Structure formats: structure tokens, C-alpha cells
Amino acid sequence: IFAEFLQQQLNEVQGEEIPKLHRRASNWYSAHDNQDAAIVHALAAGDNERAAELIGCHFNQLVQTGGVITLAGWIRKLPLEVINARPRLCLAVAWGYLFSLDLDLADEWSEAARTQAEKQIAEQEQAGGDLHAARELLGQVAAYQALIATIRGNSQLTLKYLHEALDLLPEDDL
User: What is the pTM of this model?
Assistant: First the structure.
């Protein structure tokens, strides 16, 4: 109750300053390698673009360490258009649906991830940029789609996606 009272007092006295404080905290935590806290403060600041960027950068570590539920909680707080514009976030949503055993939505979100990753590759090619990160992400999408195809018992599709993943992923990520 006391914490609620203090929060209410802070909102009344410095309500417009609170998002600025959360942004500063997010920047500080990010600079000091505490990405979880940086994401929480970016979301609290209402800075969806920054939160999405931080989540995207933190995605692989969270998936590898079993933090998919945390990831899903953060993503749920983002507007749909922010998620849809980022293939890594689309893939994170797909993982969430896989863990909840909703394969149809997992497929749908992995296709959204694929579409956005392919779009990034095309944009990088046109700009003459580095394709490494975009190709690696597309490889991760292909590996994920191979997993879904395996669960569905579709060996032909599994092999197709596995070959694609092998072509796209760096050797140290296999």
C-alpha cells in the first residue's frame, strides 16, 4: 500500500518526468550489460522502438537459456505494428506459440518472420550492405520451420528447411 502511495505521489508531482527517468534507466542498464532491466525500463517509458530493438538483440540468449516466457511477456506489451516490422520479434512470437502447442499460429508467425527477413536481405543487397546478420536470421527462421515441419511429420519440408538453414547459418551456430 505504501509503494502505491509513493507511486501516486510521484505521478502527481513529476508525472511527465517519469518516462524520461525510465529512458535514462534503460540506457544506463543497457550500458552496464543488464539487458533485462534495460528492456523493462524501455517498456515502462513507453519507448516501444527501443524496447523492440533491445528485445531483438537479446532474443538469442533468451531462447537459448529458456527465457521464452519472459520474452513473450515483453513482446505482448508492444504494439502489433512494431512486432510485425521485426523478423526476430515475429520469430519470438512463433516460439511462444510453439511452446503453447498452437502449431497453426506458430506457422503463421514464422512465415511473417521469413517475409520480414527476406525483405531485410533484399534491402541490404540493394544498399550494398552486410548480409551476414540478415542471412543468419533467415537461417534461424528456416531451422525453426524445420522443427515445426518435423513435429507435423512432414519429412520433405523438414529436409527443405534444414538444407536452407545449413546454407544460411554460420558453422559455429549449427
Answer: 0.80
CA distance 51 to 82: 10
Cell triple for 167: 546454407
CB atoms within 10 A of CB 66: 8
Contact 168, 143 (CB under 8 A): no
Q: List the one residue out of 65, 76, 73, 147 whose CA is nearest residue 110.
A: 147
The residue behind cell 520433405 is: 156
Q: Kindly report, residue by residue over 74-91, the tens digit of the pLDDT.
A: 998 999 999 999 999 999
Q: Contact, 48 vs 79, CB < 8 A?
A: yes
* pLDDT at position 171: 82
What is the per-residue pLDDT across 136-147, written as a single tens digit (0 to 9) for each? 999 999 999 999
Tell me phi and psi for residue 11, to 5 degrees: -60, -40
DSSP helix/strand/coil, 78: coil
- For residue 102, give the C-alpha cell: 498452437
